[in-house]
Amino acid sequence: MSELITTHSLGKTYGSRTVVQNLDLRVPEGCVYGFLGPNGSGKSTTMKMLLSLVRPTSGEVHIMGRRMQRSTRRDLLGEIGSLIEAPPAYAHLTGRENMRLVQRLLDLGNGQVNRAVQIVRLQNHLDKRVLDYSLGMKQRLGIAMALAREPRLLILDEPTNGLDPAGIEEMRHLLTQLADGGTTVMVSSHLLGEIDRTATVLGILSNGHMLFQGTREQLFDRSVPDVLIDTPAPERAAALAARWSANRDGDRVRIPGLDHATTAQVVAHLVNERVAIHGVRREEQSLEDVFMDLTGGRGL
Fold it and tell me: Which is it for the CA torsion 42, 46, 49, 53, positive or negative?
């Protein structure tokens, strides 16, 4: 799969404060790329550098095989839709009037505008003033404005802000639909569960450094969940397995960080010591569990 976005040693500093450092992004074409990280990790700054809204202190941004710079900026931005921070609509105008402004500015056809509005299901609210929109409706209008040009790349910073559960579900289906149709979507979000259900590739940022980049399967392969042993003698079993850092956890034994071979060794040791074992399994992990482990327990 070819890469639509690549960065090389991308960095941004403000005075003595480093926000992004030596960042090498690899965003494959046609995917939903989930960009995760605690608050202040550098996600928004990175997205702004991709869009040439913030000038990098070091490194390069390449989009669609071309370096983002003054001579290419106009052409590249014509292939990119984005929603960064607040939706860019005029509050005193209606949704329809805002979409007409976008249409005139970008010289778009009626069909392009209508399709964008229908994708976000805003067609029944176009004659309301944006001032009277809910935050979720404003988000949907902002995404419609970004989609109207039919971009190859869509960059969204927290697109589910203000959406109710039904709206979040619609957004998830929208992002998946766009990727299935060939649009590359890069999305940051604090809703790890939604990213887990939507993104096919993940990038995890902390303190301006990339901690992980790859598929969900690759991420979970890096994480070794605890082994749980069900036994009627948990106290004795934990004592016998103390060298593997075993601990009693209610009616079972919990052992962290064991690979498959060592797990088999522990079980064999307990069986040899005549400890009855009713079950052995790994604790189920969510994306949030793995994320918290990678970032040292820092939340989004």
Answer: negative
Q: In what order do the strands lie in the sheet with 153-157?
A: 80-83, 153-157, 184-188, 32-36, 201-206, 209-215
Backbone angles phi, psi at 154, to 5 degrees: -125, 120
pTM, full prediction: 0.79
Judge whether 185 and 80 are in contact, CB under 8 Å: no
The Cα–Cα gap between 231 and 274 comes to: 11
What are the distances in angstroms from CA 150 to CA 62, 199, 261, 293? 20, 20, 51, 38
For residue range 137-186, list pLDDT tens digits in order.
888 899 999 999 999 999 999 887 767 787 788 788 888 888 998 899 99
- C-alpha separations of 81 from 48, 122, 296 in Å: 12, 18, 33
Which domains are present in the chain?
3-214 (3.40.50.300), 224-284 (3.30.70)
